[in-house]
Fold these 3 entries.
Entry 1:
Amino acid sequence: MTRSISILGATGSIGASTLDLLRRNRGAWKVVALTANSRVAELAALAREFDADIAVVADERHLPQLREALSGTGIATAGGAAALCEASARPVDMTVAAIVGCAGLAPVMAAVARGGTIALANKEALVSAGDILMSAVERHKATVLPTDSEHNAIFQCLSGNRFVDIRSITLTASGGPFRAWSQDQLATATREQALRHPNWDMGAKITIDSATMMNKGLEFIEAYHLFPVELDQLRILVHPQSVVHSMVEYRDGSTLAQLGPSDMRVPIANCLAWPERMETPMASLDLAAIGELSFFAPDEERFPATRLAREAAQSGGAAPAVLNAANEAAVAAFLAGKIAFSHITVVVERTLQRSIPRGPTSLEEVLEIDANARVWANELMEHV
């Protein structure tokens, strides 16, 4: 039976991996909505290829170009934040939420409000508004399937087991391209070096987050909202081979781990086929060829991001939203050549030292906190 799907962030790395799987299973899916921020030519080509009902560009300035590219196809076009939410709210069997950053929060909430199934790859939605989002999921009887490789691994390891039996959950981290670098070396790291991830092919923002280890800090907060555990039951281990994606330890001493190649098509396929499984083009895992799996405790002196995220989660309230906004602003500044790599976490920490407002109770409050934190972070960047 053909199922319907919308992909928010179709031109990014998660969107590309999802569409590759759909391409291999043409008869199984009907594409309803595809969205992108500003890559109009690519969005239009994908909309034509998959005969989407509607293509939406978030940056409304590019809407005329999108309309021209899809003229005569019968594919509807729209632009702007409101159009993005309207497309997200269209009834489909599954929404893949892969818009990077806090820009994806409102579209995710719109998808949740219609009570559908959301394959969630936008970690910032849970970090900045975890309580609000998960309350909405419960209220609207929506289903959230974790698409990040680590959270999807946990999801798989929990299958068939009782939450009350969980002793701990361990998120693994590759350590990024700078795992073995000294603090002096980190201070001179370039944009090109930071974007050269040893294991994963990802977008620029998440690749920088991996290099600072902030990606794992954000995932730590995500896991707290996704799974019924306390903060002190969550662990982080550096695992350079990126073969073990996460582990769950049970109270009888058993530890279940999910292993797989470093390719996002594996966790995405798990979400697309859930509760069943589907074929992917991945070769079988060859552990003999890999030869060694190693694990290390994170070094929070060289990479303080995981400490900052844990402290923000412990503080609660608006602190995780401030952490996320400051990090997004600092990463953008680093990518633009405005600050040094080692200053990313400095900016985040100093922003968190500001007077943090009370916890948000609505999407509007989350977005206001996010905007204010970006202003604070940008002010601090003038003095680091």
Note: The two ends are 57 Å apart (CA to CA).
Entry 2:
Amino acid sequence: MIGAIIGDVVGSRFEFDNYRDKDFELFAEECQVTDDSIMILAVAKAIMETEKIIHSSPDGNSYYALIEKMAIKYMQEIGRQYPHCGYGAMFSNWIFSDHPEPYNSFGNGAAMRISPAGFAARTESEVRKLSNAITRVSHNHEEGLKGAEAVATAIYMARRGFTKNEIREKMENDYYSLDFTIDGIRDSYMFNETCQKTVPQAIEAFLESTSFEDAIRLAISLGGDSDTLAAITGSIAEAYYGVPEELEEKALSYLDRQSRAIYDEWQCFLRNRSRESRD
């Protein structure tokens, strides 16, 4: 999660003022938490609350039915407390609706919020099911579902020790053609809020990177929807490289008390999950 939050915060000041190079100050006065981080925290909260009720491994329909309800509950409940954090118009309507329904979206919000699923899942099959259950409550277009699943799968593979070549092969076989380089598309890449034109680029930025920080810089240097690109790239890069402590501490300083409490709860949840897997 912290990798995505760092990407969101660092990229926030470049979203509508693109900077197409890697030589910039990571954190600046204009940086802020946007809807990307808020929704990531909401998804994490939904997963944690679901597992408080259903303690067993999520191998049945009841778990995924509950995660859908929890995803709606916490994306709305938490999201409504941050009405000006940058939601798109359609998603804002969904957040504040009394009867939220999926609206056939393939916006990149499906992919930017899904990182907790990639970190929580125990198996690749669980990654797909968890990603789809969380995503389809709003972004139920096949491209929205695919974008979220690709990101969650890349995170799962990265944290499980797969190589970049193996991750690239999986992405190209099952999700997207990655027949480009960041340098090759940088000058022509335009602002785009769809999964189709955001997720492949974010994945490629990770694959070309040499470190966590380099991944963030590469994603932002592409231009476009900078905070979301960097949040997606950062989520995969965290799973692969880990995150430098100084970057984590700086990014967390941008969270308010409620957001920080969810983040701390999530860290405890992951530690407990790790202990359970060793026992």
Note: The radius of gyration is 17 Å.
Entry 3:
Amino acid sequence: MTLLANVLNIETTIDLGLDIGTANTLMSIKDKGIVVNEPTMVAVESDSGKLIAIGHEALNMHQKMHPGIQTILPVNQGIISDYEPALKLVRELLHTIRPRVLFGIHRLVTSIPLGITEVGKRAFLDMADRLGAKETFLVTEPIAAAIGAGLNPVESVAKMIVNLGAGSSQIAVVSLGGIVSGESLAVSGNQINNAIIRYLRENNNLAISDYAAEQIKLKLATCFGEIDHDCRLTVKGFNLLSGFPETQEIRSVTIREIITTLLQEVVMAIKKSIEVLADKPDVAVDILERGIYLTGGGALLNGIDRKIQAETGLAVTICNEPETAVSKGLCTILENFETFRPVLIVNRKQK
């Protein structure tokens, strides 16, 4: 630290973990844990593009703004699809934690989706450069999620991670710091929400918000077993026939029917990732003995663990606080950097 930093008890730099997700952006700092968790959304003036709001404030404006304002979701399926708004979002979020930081970011570790292209990686690396990070490393989301769940992907014992995110579902068997087999699916929390919105519009003539769809999913969705009693939830929306707002009761049986097909795609992908291990019997035995670990917000769906277990015959564990597993993993990497260095993708510029 500089003399001024010592006197003021201010840190000169931070080691930052950055998880830019489709739905939420999380930041974690070494030895401090998660310090930011905001929606990945910005609101701008339609004509000038001037930034108006980010995160929760932008989300509150979403679907309520006038033509002079637009909201942007700059990340799609975990990939930066609108670079400048994404950069503005991250910079503004950094400002909320950087008053105590004099000289910026020393080491930055950011998560990337499985199967991302080199062009996609470059967007993350360029962003890190523009944020002023002195050292930048990438790590795939399933590996970060495994670390956040308390597992060690560097060990020779194989683990299967199923990360059910808002933008994609990623299935990976990890061992010795790498991915033995894996697949990224478009099936996601957002896709389930969109299916609910589409069904109610087409069958109930009811238009609902993204937020309402999320609440329906979390409160009514049941993925496995008999539904003991048909739960109902009162939902507010806009009747497309009458042209007026109204409330309707939505049944859990209906939601079960909507999400079944989508969840079956996840189950089939899990089976496929196991089947390709035919030439690696020791890895398959590890999976048999330890089962499957679920992370991501989709792990909170009622009965998802029992459905996967019934379909695969493998034990399924929902990790603690699954929706923040990736960000917790990034923080753990920063705190045990040499241990987890083998799982990191190094920015070629700094080699």
Note: The first strand starts at residue 14 and ends at 20.
